[in-house]
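Long-time lurker. I teach an intro course on protein structure, and each term I like to show students one example going from raw sequence to a predicted 3D structure in token notation. This year I'd like something fresh instead of my usual example. Would anyone be willing to generate the tokens for the chain below so I can use it in lecture? Attribution to the forum is fine with me.
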Amino acid sequence: MTEAAEEHRAAGRAYVTLQDVAREAGVSLATASRVLNGTSQVRADLRERVLEAASLLSYTPNAHAQALASASSKSVGVICHDVSDPYFAAVARGVMHTAAEHGMLVMLASTFRDPAREVEYVAMLRAQRARAILLIGSGFEDRDWEHAMAAELDPYQRTGGRVAVLSRHRSLKVDAVLPQNREGAAALARALLDLGHRDFGVLTGPRALTTVSDRLAGFTGALAEADVAVPAEHIVEAAFTRDGGYAAATALLRRETRPTCVFAVTDVMAIGALAAFRDHGVSVPDDISLAGFDDIPIVRDLTPPLTTVALPLGAMGERVMSLALREPSARRSRIDRVDGEVVLRASTAPPR
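-- Reply from a regular --
Happy to contribute to a lecture. Here you go:
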């Protein structure tokens, strides 16, 4: 027995995951998924290693399927990055509203932006024969993730499962609700330019997330059209969370120069930034203007209220659930594009 298998057994875990099998076999998650799903050609030596690892660990992907089969036609799996994030909570509310109208049971899981965990949850939902799987939130700029996810979703769809996503998932040929992140960020940049700002900072999450890369590109691209550039030292990357926004804003204040306006690529990061500015004696908007993106409900109640790009979050959840319930089209996937609206509030003002 290998060291990995010994650790698994010593931990007394009740189930074995696809990731465990991949680690035991020394292959990628995508390769392990392909072998166990029988979806594509895999080298004979790799196939043998995966099958041996699955046998050694007693991997049973359909362990719960039989027990849940009678209820599976009424279950929908929703996989998001973090349900405690108000963005996902608002979207999930819309999903559940539409699911309730159709008598569906929603199972909700948070990946905490771990690509491997997202693939693993999809595998679990397949095993439980969920009628539909919804991926809520940004895709990843990661080829291994793309291949591993496709290896799970393709056979699931071929056997009648329905898949819909919210946000950009470049490689997945599925129905999607697509917020216009790039266009919304560009419109916000133009609105801030109209206020007179020329010195900008950006608080960004990990650029491997498609939402982050689209919003950053849209914002900086619109500025470039006006011959305005954001210095590299004024673009600060941190976790896509409130605490990440606080840390990024604090780091920005330590730079040699300070922008007159800061764009946080999500409202949650902007909330953290607002707290950081307050704690460091920086007044918003007197000393620095601040803007976010999403229009989660709480930002209207901040002091000052936050300028943002408003997305209809609840309606987006309803739309992605409706896509998952519709009859699939043999011709092509359906894409519903959702525009954002710039909402100027008291957190932004003309620069001094």
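Some talking points for your students: The domain at 3-56 is CATH 1.10.260.40 (434 Repressor (Amino-terminal Domain)). Residues 56 and 331 are 42 Å apart (CA to CA).
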